[in-house]
Amino acid sequence: MQQKINSVRARMKDNNVDLIALGPGTHMKWLLGFNPSPDERPCMLLMGLENDAFLMPSVNVEDAMKRSNIKMFSWKDENGPDKALDEALSYTGSSNAKNIAIDEAMRSHFALILIDALPKPTYEFTNSTIGALRMRKDNDEYTNLKENALIDDRAMQAGFAAIKEGVTELEIGEAINKHFISEGAKPQFCIVGSGPNGAFPHHHTGNRKVEYGDVVLIDIGGRKGTFPSDMTRMSVLGEPPEEYLKVHNIVEQAVQAAMLAARPGVMAKEVDAAARSVITEAGYGDYFVHRTGHGLGIDIHEPPYITATSEVVLDEGMVFSIEPGIYLQERFGVRLEEIVILRANGPEILSELSRETNFIK
C-alpha cells in the first residue's frame, strides 16, 4: 500500500496536483485494498503533498480503523461534515490547494462540498495520477488476471456443453455461472445471444430457446480475488447459416490486425483503426458498431479505451480487450474478444481457449 501511495504522490508532484480526493470506490480499493461502505454521507480520502486523511462518517469509523492507519476526521449526522472537512484539509496541508484531482466516480455532492471548502481551486479528474498508475498492472495483478482468464476458459466450455436444441439462453448462462462458482469465482456478467439475439452487442440473456442452425454468441466474466475476466467466443448448433463462416473469418482477421498494431508507444486509436479497416475493407464497416476494446482491472471497463479517437499512448503492463464484431440484424452477430497485457514485443493473450467456432452437431 505504501508503495502505491508513494507512486501517487510522485505523480501529483510531476503533474502539479496539490490534492487528490477519492470517494468510496475502485480507486480507493486499488490504493488501500478496501473502501468504506458507500452511501450518501460524505466520505473522502484526501491525499495532500504532506499527509493523507479520511473524512469519515462516524458510523463507518470503527470499521475503517481496523483496515487503515490513516488519520480519521469523523463527523456525525447531527453536525454535518464541514468542520471535519476543514480539519482534514488542514492536516493534509491542503487548505489552500489550487489544483485538485477529483475521483471521477465520486458522488457529485461530495465533490461540490470539497470545492466549496477551498479558495477557488481548479480541478481535473484522476487521469494523470491514480488513473495512469492503475492502467499498468504489476506482476501480482497479472497473476490474478491470468488465473481468472483460465477460469473463464473453463466456464466458457461449460457453456458450450450446455448448448442443445430447445435449451434457453438463461439455462446456458446458469451452467456458466455454476462453473464460476465451482472454482470460487463470483459471476460478473453473462451474455448469451442465440440466433438473431447475437446481433445485439449487449443482449440481455433471456428465455429464447436455441434452434438448430443457430449461431450462439457468449460473452462472460467472473471474479476470483481482486480482478475479473472477460471473453467472447462463438458456437454454432448444426449447420452454420449462410455467410457465417465468412463473417467469422473477417472478425478473426480484425483481431489479428489489432494484435499486430498493439505495441508500446502506439496510440490506442491506431489499434482501433487496424481492426476497423479490416472490417470496413471487407464491406461490413457499418456493422461494427462499438469500440475495439476497453481496459480491464478492478473495474471490468476502465482505461485505456481502444476507440477511434483515443490518443492514449499504450505502454507495457496495460491490460485491455481486443474485441471487434460484426452484427447482422435479425440474423446473427459475431464478436471475438481477448484480454491482453501489453509486453515490450506486443500483446500477451491471457486466455488459452481457441477463437475458432465451437461446432455442435
Describe the structure.
The chain is of the alpha/beta class and 361 residues long. It folds into two domains: 133 residues, Creatinase/prolidase N-terminal domain (Creatine Amidinohydrolase, Chain A, domain 1, 3-Layer(aba) Sandwich); 222 residues, Alpha-Beta Complex (Creatine Amidinohydrolase), CATH 3.90.230.10. 35% of the residues lie in helices and 24% in strands. It has ten helices and 17 strands. The strands form five sheets. The chain has a six-stranded mixed beta sheet. A hairpin with a 6-residue loop joins strand 10 and strand 11. It is elongated, with a radius of gyration of 23 Å. The termini are far apart.
What share of residues is helical? 25-40%
| Biggest sheet: strand arrangement | 4-3-2-1-5-6
Total number of helices? 10
What CATH calls the topology of the largest domain is: Creatine Amidinohydrolase
- The shape, in one word, is elongated
CATH superfamily of the largest domain: Creatinase/methionine aminopeptidase superfamily
For the record, the CATH class of the largest domain is Alpha Beta
Low-pLDDT residue spans: none
Q: How many domains is the backbone divided into?
A: 2
Q: Secondary-structure element order, as H and E?
A: HEHEEHEHEHEHHHEEEHHEEEEEEEE
* N-to-C span: 52 Å
Q: How confident is the prediction overall: mean pLDDT?
A: 97
Strand segment tally: 17
The major pleated sheet works out as:
6 strands, mixed
